Amino acid sequence: MISKKLLAVMGLTLAAPALAQPAPIGITPPPLADTPYSFDTAEVHGIEVTVLAKGFAQPFAIEPLPNGDMLIVERGVGLRLLRGATGATPELVEGHVPGVPEDTPEVFSYGVIDIALHPDFAENGWIYFTFNGFAPLPEGTSPLQRPGYFKLLRGTWADGAVTGVETIFETENQAYAGGTRVHVADDGMVWVATTGPYDGTSQDMSDIYGKVLRLNADGSIPANNPHVGEDGVHPAIYSHGHRDQHGLTVHPATGQAFTVEHGPNGGDELNLIQPGGDYGWPDYSFGREYDGSDATPLPFGPDTVEPTVVWLPSIAPSGLMFYTGDAFPEWQGNLFIGSARWGEINATGSLQRVVFNEDFGELRREALLQQLHQRVRDVAQGPDGLIYVLTDGPENAVLRIAPGN
């Protein structure tokens, strides 16, 4: 073999070996089966998981209807109807539900994001939508930080369509067009979680981004909100200092609101929302930067509310539900949280289950459905007391969890 020194004398070089490309990080999910799965869990020894529908676009939220049908949000696009979701032969109705407003549907950040039913839905048919209105991308801004205008809409559901849609709350300011959530509590109060990961918006008390908002059923401001009457503070704000909130629910017994938010890299949080509470972002976080360095010097401060649950590493949380049904008595009172992935590894999502004591101190947690390698985006309890799960990749599916035979 000719030496490198001899090649140099001859004025030649030896070609450098080709660098090996790094293998993609993640797991290839197996296709979802047409037949039910059977799994064991820590406290319910035997569950049956059935795929009800799949193949729709950009799923973000599900909402069971009292008659056993289900609405599916195609994020930024519109609503789909899964007819007979609680029955033996569910049918995904072709096309979108009429009457839902659109806004540049080619960009998933804009348009309808989340939905919720009023507790008197059977009588009034009211359905609420969070909505991101289009805003132009500022020069030099990453598309990942695409801005939008937040709106809360309300319409009426009847005969497979939405009618009378009106804007009941909106802001003139724009910020990151993220995955907002809405939940209407049993007392009719409307809770909204907005995102605020960038530019310190979550600490800007004049604006509604990176906040939990509390509204009346018609979108007006409750007189007993914690900041009503304060100069320079938006009166809809109930808590602030939130990063990227992708889950929101209200405890059915206590009436307390809970949200989950993404940390920057690890440090995902479940927060019990306190009136006027500051949850720290961007000054305090349990998370890291994406190079592994600390995001903030301390995880929480003397005047911030500590998280109820922290995930290290990250689970990419999305969708929240306290279970109250009779189908799984062992799970009554447990909190279920969707998870898109674990520890920054793709195709490692699950349905997280957390057990609390009466003071919401964590007792234990479990990851369900890991065997499917799906990104879990939302979770809901059906009128039949069974649990319904929405996945957003790679096949996009609605799953039903029932007791095993």
Commentary on this structure:
The protein is mainly β and about 400 residues long. About 0% of the residues lie in helices and about 40% in strands. It has helices at about 5-10, 120-125; strands at about 35-40, 45-55, 60-65, 70-75, 80-85, 90, 110-115, 125-135, 145-160, 160-175, 180-185, 190-195, 210-215, 235-240, 245-250, 255-260, 270, 275-280, 310, 315-320, 335-340, 350-355, 360-370, 375-380, 385-390, 395-405. It has a five-stranded antiparallel beta sheet with strand order 1-2-26-25-24, with no helix packed on it. It has a five-stranded mixed beta sheet with strand order 11-12-13-14-18, with no helix packed on it. A four-stranded antiparallel beta sheet has the order 3-4-5-6, with no helix packed on it. Strand 4 and strand 5 form a beta hairpin. The longest helix is centred in the first third of the chain and has 6 residues, at about 5-10. The protein starts with a helix and ends with a strand. Mean pLDDT is about 95; it is low at about 1-15.
Q: What is the overall shape?
A: globular
The ordered string of helix (H) and strand (E) elements is HEEEEEEEHEEEEEEEEEEEEEEEEEEE
Q: Beta-strand percentage?
A: 35-45%
Tally of alpha and pi helices: 2
Q: What topology, given as strand order, has the largest sheet?
A: 1-2-26-25-24
- Secondary structure category: mainly beta
Radius of gyration: 23 Å
Question: What characterizes the major β-sheet?
Answer: 5 strands, antiparallel
Number of strands: 26
Low-confidence stretches are 1-17
Share in helix? under 10%
Task: Output mean pLDDT.
Answer: 93
For the termini, the CA-CA separation is: 70 Å
